[in-house]
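WARN retry 2 of 3 for item q-0093 after timeout on previous attempt; input resubmitted unchanged.
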Amino acid sequence: MIQKEGFIGVTTDNIFPIIKKFLYSDHEIFLREVVSNAVDATQKLKTLSQVGEYKEALGDLSVRISIDKKAKTLTISDRGIGMTAEEVDEYINQIALSSANNFLDKYKDNANAIIGHFGLGFYSTFMVASKVEIVTKSYKEGAQAVKWACDGTPQYTMEEADKADRGTDIVLYIDDENKEFLEKDKIESLLKKYCKFLPIPIVFGKKQEWKDGKQVETEEDNVINNPNPLWKQQPAGLKEEDYLKFYRELYPFSMDEPLFWIHLNVDYPFRLTGILYFPKIKSNIDLQRNKIQLYSNQVFVTDSIESIVPEFLTLLHGVIDSPDIPLNVSRSYLQSDQNVKKISTHITKKVADKLEDIFKKDRPQFETKWDSLKLFIQYGMLSEEKFYDRAAKFCLLKNTDGKYFTLEEYKKLIESNQTDKEKNIIYLYASNKDDQYTHIDAAKEKGYDVLMMDGQLDVHWVGLLEQKLEKTRFVRVDSDTIEHLIIKDEENKVELTDDQKKALTEIINSQLPGMEKTEFNIDFKALGKDAKPIQIVQNEFSRRMKEMSEMQQGMSFYREMPDAYQVVMNSDHPLVKELIAGADGKQDEELKSYAAESPKLKQMIDLALLSNGMLKGEALNNFVKRSFEKL
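OK item q-0093 returned
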C-alpha cells in the first residue's frame, strides 16, 4: 500500500515562487513542455514494442488534451510508458539544484534557460496551476497506478490510485490569474503553435461541422497536428506539388507561391532536416523576417532564428529541425554553441549551392526570378563574406533594356567605351527609368549602357561592388552632365570672368523655384555649343550618403541634410552667351529685373527642371501655358 507525503528534493524551498515570478513572461510554454513529455513517453513505448520488450498491443497512441471548465482543470493524457511509484520519486520529487543563489543570479531573467537547464519542464505547469495531479500507471506487468499531487509548495502527497490503462494523466487546476487556459480557442492556438508537427497524434476534442445553421461536434477526433511533416520524408519520393502544398500549410495566408526550395537532410557531423523556401521578395526586408520556424525533434522552439542562421537567411521561409539544438536555451547560448555554428555554415553553403545550380542549369529561369531574388542575394553579399565569394559568380546586373549580365559579362561589355582617363571603368545606372529618362537617353546617344538600380539595397550594393571590383566606379546617370559622367580627355576651360559668373549666378538664383529641403548651386562648364544650355544634376556622393542613411543607423546627420543639386550653365551655348551680354554692367536689382523679363531664361530653367521631374504644380502649369502661347 503506497501512501506517502514528503518534500520535493530541492536545495531551496522557494522553487515555486521562482518559477511563478521569473517564468511568468513565458508561461504559455507549460503546454509545450507537458505535451512534449507525453509524446516522449509514447515514443519510448513504441521503441520498446519494436525491440520486443513490450509485447502487448499498442492500441491508440494519441495524446489527448481536455478542458473541464466546471472543475477548472486542463488535462493532458497519454498511453505511453507511464511511471511506477519509484520513478515518480526519481523524476518528479528530486530536482537537483546546486545553489539557490547561483540559480537565481544566473537564470532569473531567462525563463527558457531555467526550464531547459534544470529539466524543469513539468514544473512549468505551476506557472498557471494552483494544484497539479499526476495519475500514472507503468507499462510494466503488474504495476500499481499512483497518484501524485502538489499545491505549489515543496510539499507533495503520493498514494495508490485506480487506473485501468497504462500511461499518464497530468491534471492542472488552473488558477484564477490564468483562466485563459480554460478557453478552447486559446488551447487550440497554443497546440497549433507548439505541437503542430509532433510525431504522435495530438487530439483536442472532436471535429466540428456546419449543420442546421450552426457548428456541431462530430464523432471524429480533432487531430491538431501533422505527425509526418514533409521535411521528415525522403526528398526522392516527393513532387513539386507536395512542396507547394506544405508551403500553404505553413503559410495559409500567403498570396505568392515560393520561387523554389531546398530540402535539408544531414546526419553528420550534426543532425539536421528541414525545407527552406525562397519567397518572392520585392521590398521591405523587415516585413519578411521571422518566417523560418525552428523545431527540435518536431517540437516548435522559435521563429526568431537570428542566432541560428546568418541574418540574410532570415528572409527565407520554411522549417529547420535539429535535435542538436536544445529546446530551451538562451540566445547567448545559441550564438556560442558549436553545433549551431556548424548548422549555420552548412545552410549558407546549401543556399549558395542551390542558387548556383539553378543559374548554371537553367539561366533563363534564373533571370526571370532575379527581380524577386535580388534583394535576398544582395543582402547576403553585403553581410556574409563567404556568401559574396559564391554569389559573385551568379549575381546579375540588369540594364534599362531589361537584359541581364553577370559581373564578368558586364565588365567586358562596357570597358572599351566606359573607361575614363584614370583607367576607371564607369558603371552608369538609373534608379527611376521615367524620372531619369532624359539622362538615360543622353547616355545611350553617347553609346553608353545604363543599368537599372531601383532596389531597396542597391545603393549599399553599389558601394560594396566598388570595394570589390578593381578600378570601378558606379555613377548615377543624372549625377553630372553627359559630357562629364565619363571624363576621357582634359576638360575644356570656361572662358568667363568672375564678374560674369557672379552676374549669371544672381540671374539664375532669382528664377529658381523655392523647394523645401532643396538647395541649388550654380556651376559653369564649357560643354560645347551643341550641348544643352542649362542642366540640373545631383552630386553622386551626397545623394548616395543620404539614401544610405535611410536604412543605416548612425547616419541621421545625412538624412537631415537638404537635397543638393547643381545647376550647370554651359558657357559655350549661344543662349547663355546672350544672357551674359544682356547682364553686362547691371547691378543686383537690375539683374533681377532683367532675369524676370527674360522669357528665354525662364523657359530654359523650366526645361531643366522638367527633365528631372522637378517641375510641378503652379510652375508646371505656367510652363504649359507659356509653351502654348509660343506656338
